[in-house]
Fold this sequence. Notes:
By secondary structure, this protein is α/β, with parallel strands linked by helices. Helices cover 26% and strands 22% of the residues. The chain has helices at residues 3-22, 84-99, 116-126, and strands at residues 39-42, 55-57, 63-65, 73-79, 104-111, 132-135, 154-158, 164-169.
Amino acid sequence: WGAEAVRRALAVLVLLAALPACSSVGGTGDRGYISGDGQISQLAPGERDEPIELTGTDLDGRAVDLGRLRGQVVVVNLWGSWCPPCRAEMPDLVEVAEDAGPGVTFLGINVRDRSVEDAQGFVRVYDVPFATVWDPDGEALLAFPVALVRSPPSTLVLDRRGRIAAAVIGPLPSALTL
């Protein structure tokens, strides 16, 4: 199989995996999120798309530009303070972020919180050591493939060129996953 065929097959598998979560049987109910199962997808260097371009503002009003992080591995975590699986996985993300060596940066993207204060409260409670882009309307998510960031929690690993190298749809199975 060629790289394009593998990429298409991976996209189809991710979409098929999402179908039960989007149905009335396995849907969100009144919880407001679609939970993934923590499935891990990896892309070989030759299968990766163009670098992700993302700019925004962090929870303290500072500018964030993913392009400035080129040359580093970047772990991007999509979360919301209202999301129970996000709360469950955050201690693992904090542990890994604190132990990450040079050349690895973490970045959060907060979605659909009603106020920046809600998101800041979450960061304080979990002692999140990395910057988080505040994205109440989901505009920052447009930089990523829909199949990989359809709802929180989702975690993406970007290679040093800013391309998606791996994704976890749903909560991280453990800190060791990263």
